[in-house]
Amino acid sequence: MRPKKTRWVTCEPGERCFRPQCNPRDGLEGVILSLDEFEAMRLAYLESYDQKKMAKQMKIHQSTISRILNSAHKKVTDALVNVKAIRIEGGCCTIAGKAVK
Question: Could you tell me which CATH class the domain 7-100 is placed in?
Answer without folding.
Answer: mainly alpha
